[in-house]
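Translate structure to sequence.
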């Protein structure tokens, strides 16, 4: 691409501003593909389930002390979820992961450190993050690790290559609650309620205190409107 543009400039084949436009378009496409899991740009992603009136619950960034509140509500409503766990959080709170497993929830890989450099890592660093998390989860008692969710929902060529070779299924979402940025419970519930009927995979974070109350409302809404809470693992396998 770079060589082609240089050749075109040298030959005066096109105006410079056309070349600038092409470069900006290429950068925009790459940025969109990197930040949008649903685009399947660098790796194939499951971001929605096929059934109607079904919802899969997913939680990122734990285990965390607040996870107990989430687990209490899930147990109360006899609902299952998938927890995408960070390896170093597992090492800090192994007893919470033990509870997650004991109560029948699925556990996925969310990297060892959830690094802010995730999208800029090379293949070696990406592989280490993924493999170290898998090792941590297995040592903590997770027997079957099938799912992966990229930190921040970001992918790249390096991340895509590692994930394709890992054997893990990359899981996205079609309803991002934004519970890490919307701190008002009322506003958070308004966002979720406005989108829930058109969604099948919802992203929450069990690290957020106000998420528990919104989860309760979500489950009550689903029960009242005939929306079934499904296991992500069982649904994908069926």
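Result:
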């Amino acid at each position: 691409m770079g060589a082609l543009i240089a050749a075109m400039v040298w030959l005066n084949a096109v105006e410079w501003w056309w070349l600038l436009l092409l470069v900006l378009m290429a950068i925009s496409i790459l940025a969109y593909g990197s930040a949008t899991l649903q685009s399947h740009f660098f790796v194939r992603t499951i971001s929605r389930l096929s059934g109607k009136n079904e919802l899969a619950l997913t939680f990122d960034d734990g285990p965390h002390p607040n996870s107990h509140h989430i687990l209490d509500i899930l147990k109360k409503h006899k609902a299952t979820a998938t927890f995408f766990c960070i390896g170093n959080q597992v090492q800090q709170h192994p007893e919470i992961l033990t509870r997650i497993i004991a109560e029948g929830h699925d556990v996925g890989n969310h990297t060892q450190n959830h690094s802010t450099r995730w999208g800029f890592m090379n293949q070696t660093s990406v592989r280490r993050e993924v493999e170290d998390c898998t090792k941590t989860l297995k040592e903590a008692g997770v027997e079957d690790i099938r799912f992966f969710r990229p930190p921040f929902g970001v992918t790249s060529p390096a991340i895509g290559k590692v994930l394709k070779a890992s054997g893990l299924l990359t899981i996205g979402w079609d309803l991002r609650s934004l519970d890490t940025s919307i701190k008002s419970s009322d506003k958070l519930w308004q966002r979720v309620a406005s989108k829930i009927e058109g969604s099948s995979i919802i992203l929450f974070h069990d690290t957020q205190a106000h998420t528990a109350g919104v989860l309760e409302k979500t489950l009550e809404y689903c029960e009242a409107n005939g929306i079934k809470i499904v296991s992500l693992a069982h649904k994908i396998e069926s």
